[in-house]
TrEMBL record:
The chain crosses the membrane at residues 12-30, 36-55. It comes from Triticum turgidum subsp. durum (Durum wheat). GO terms for molecular function: acyltransferase activity, transferring groups other than amino-acyl groups. This is FAE domain-containing protein. InterPro entries: 3-ktacl-CoA_syn (IPR012392), FAE1_typ3_polyketide_synth (IPR013601), Thiolase-like (IPR016039).
């Protein structure tokens, strides 16, 4: 028999006998200790482990997400955009917007809210709310259908829209529409710019880590186009007219185990 085989057998024997070799001296030594010492030796590590598990931050999972998908009737080809814009801005501004649109990377399938399809575009409060409700509610409906979650399961709600912050807020609209619980923590973020989506996710994560385990957070991010259409001559202000389109997304975060949700 080769020496390598003998060494392997000796190693296996040593590993399999490690627990008795260590346990027997410890048991003999424990017999010499007072009962209170044995109790403390078992209780203190268990108590420290329990405190650590309770105070450590909860792991936050992204369960799923859904994006707003506009109907084909809201599509605005370049020709239609140019025709509508010609009634709102002067010729010089129109030429600038057309050049910018051609170089923007946007395609012919981008969409604008229904109020922007009128000549001239409508920018009133009612039309702005209609756009917000269409985008926000459509995204949430798709998300709840995918995750099989009801409004009663939502513990935290964070909604962000930088340029349109009406009263009641978007968060209030969602709470009322989906019959969320009275104790739901709801937040509406406004004026945060293009980073509002990341700020909303971070806020929801922080709230989940201090909430009871197994909590769910709904995060909705959108921006309204209707009230922000610019008709002046300042080129920097004309940029959003060409670059921004309808859009929104909803995401469900949770501190439930990944086995329950199969979180992403």
């Amino acid at each position: 028999m080769s020496s390598s085989v003998q060494h392997e057998r000796l190693y296996r024997l040593l590993v399999s006998s490690m627990l008795p070799i260590v346990a027997v001296p410890l048991m003999l030594k424990a017999g010499e200790l007072r009962p209170v010492h044995v109790f403390l030796a078992a209780f203190v590590p268990a108590a420290l482990a329990a405190v650590y598990l309770r105070l450590r931050p909860h792991a936050v999972y992204m369960v799923d997400y859904a994006c707003f998908c506009p109907s084909p009737g809201l599509r605005v080809p370049f020709a239609a955009f140019q025709e509508h814009a010609s009634t709102c801005v002067d010729e010089r501004s129109l030429r600038f917007m057309v050049r910018l649109l051609e170089r923007s990377g946007l395609g012919e399938e981008t969409c604008l809210p229904d109020a922007q399809h009128y000549i001239p575009p409508e920018r009133d409060l009612g039309s702005s709310r209609d756009e917000a409700e269409l985008v926000v509610f459509s995204a949430i409906d798709d998300l709840l259908a995918k995750t099989k979650v009801s409004g009663e399961d939502i513990d935290i709600l964070v909604v962000n829209c930088s340029l349109f912050a009406p009263t009641p807020s978007f968060a209030d609209m969602v709470v009322s529409r989906y019959k969320l619980r009275e104790d739901v923590r709801s937040v509406h973020l406004a004026g945060m710019g293009c980073s509002a989506g990341l700020i909303s996710v971070e806020l929801a994560r922080n709230l989940l880590q201090v909430a009871p385990g197994g909590s769910n957070a709904l995060v909705v991010s959108t921006e309204t186009i209707t009230p922000n259409y610019y008709t002046g001559k300042e080129r920097a202000m004309l940029l959003p007219n060409c670059l921004f389109r309808m859009g929104g997304a909803a995401v469900l975060l949770s501190t439930r185990g990944s086995r329950t949700w199969c979180g992403r």
